[in-house]
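Issue 218. Parser rejects a valid record. Input:
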Amino acid sequence: MDTFNDLDTSQKVLYVVGGAAVVIVTVVGLRKLCFKKTKAKKDYPRDTVIHHQIGRGPYAPSMTPFAVKLETYLRMAKIPYQNDHGMEPSSKGKLTWIEYNGHEVADSSLCIKFLNKKMSVDLNRSLSPADRGIAQAMQAMAEDHIYWLIGLFRWQYDNDKSFVMNALKLSKFTFWKFQRVLEKEAWSQGLGRHTEDEVAEMFKKDLQSLSDFIGMKKFLMGDEPCETDCAVFGQLSQVYWHFIGTGHDNILKDKYPTLAAYCERMKEAFWPDWDQCITHGGKREATKYSQETTERVMDTFNDLNTSHKVLYVVGGAAVAIVTVVGLRKLCFKETKTKKDYPRDTVIHHQTGRGPYVPSLTPYSVKLETYLRMAKISYQNVHGFQPSSKGKYTWIEYNGQAVADSTLCINFLNKKMGVDLNRNLSPAEKGVAQAMQTMVEDHLYWLIAIFRWQFDNDKSFIVNALKLSKFMLWTYRRLMTNQAWNQGLGRHTEDEATEMFKKDLQSLSDFIGTKKFLMGDEPCETDSAVFGQLSQIYWHFIGTGHDNILKDKYPNLAAYCERMKETFWPDWDQCITHGGTREAAK
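Output the parser choked on:
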């Protein structure tokens, strides 16, 4: 990673100065563009939740799934509330948040957690520990995977944008700016690096997983709704009612009628006043709107003065140039692909071996574990040659390059006729998919935040990656920015810790005394779960949670040992033993 010295002086200056420009322009420009700060209203009624959100939507109560989620929860829990529609953001820059007796809470999940404690609400009271683990995984799949796929179809791909532009009353220029912002966030999160066809396949796989799991049940987990129903309905409401112009307008009705029926049941059960909470395609005001509304919810660019407009437009270009040029030079040195690899052998590109785990990146551990599980011939190539998507875990097979660990596995399953999930029922495959998204799109970011963002002992990661102080600072800034764009980086360390423990508890409760994730036989998702847990079990040194699996979740520690024993008999030859010697393999 330490290739900064390969830059000449002008490039170093460009990167450092440009980095500062990125921060200044982003903070000043986006704050000016995205919302106009106003003081919070102070005369709200006591003992009433004030739900801040943007204006009502055309065919669902909001264009943002998190507002639908939170308002559905308030109705499900029968908590008195009042909507305040507008563009006043929370302290974390989010537009769905609450106030209660003067206390502000940002982020829909944290709002629900706060209200559960304050109001003694438990909508999951009828669920077993294992069922709670499944529900948590389903929520992660909905909010940390499907949400981003919805965003890509809505904002990024080249399709009809008239629906979203009219619904949010956006000018072409403002739409373009929001498109750029969301494109950057999706790239940081990871899903924005894929092609539209790849994203469409992922989207259908998630929907199929949800459809198979819900099956004939009335609600997500059975005859009674639970807290996660709010999150799932929030996301699906956008697909069912607000996917116009994406090319998948009627996908639930046509391909997943189970999910369409589920949306109708949720609407009937908790939104008897639905017609009063929508604008009917913008034809009339929603009668259940708010006391105060903003006429043009997001189009506030005209509120900027000329200097701010120039700053934002020119600065936006600077961000693009500096990010593309600077980060490519800093993070990796492009080299030509080696052409003389053996035929019919998977070439697994990854970074070097790790101190106590075969890699410091969970996705390399995942992919190599999968190759061993599937008994596919492979050869490792260690280094920092990135894939076409800027990722360091990828494969080549007979000259064909495939980026992203999940896409690599999909490719090899098809090419080699492999199906490690062959013993799972459709519903079990849905659960496994949800568990995978929970660990890879939620738990992964929490691991990264503890490793890079929070102020703790960095000596382990510095020594493992041989980073200079400047490179550590640079990578911390980069990872902090990516985690902020993804969303989890906006939380405090205490909040992140609670989320981290909740994910681990969900996994622990679901695995229980089983040998592997889904039972006595390993499945494809075991490679993904092991990849993430391996970093916590062996590579979490200095984070303040070094021994959390051994101390708090012993069945997860035992699971890691079983996976290691089953698929890595040569483990000791694949690690550097704390950097004391070269890995023999």
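Fixed in the parser; the record now loads. Residues 129-156 form the longest helix (28 residues).
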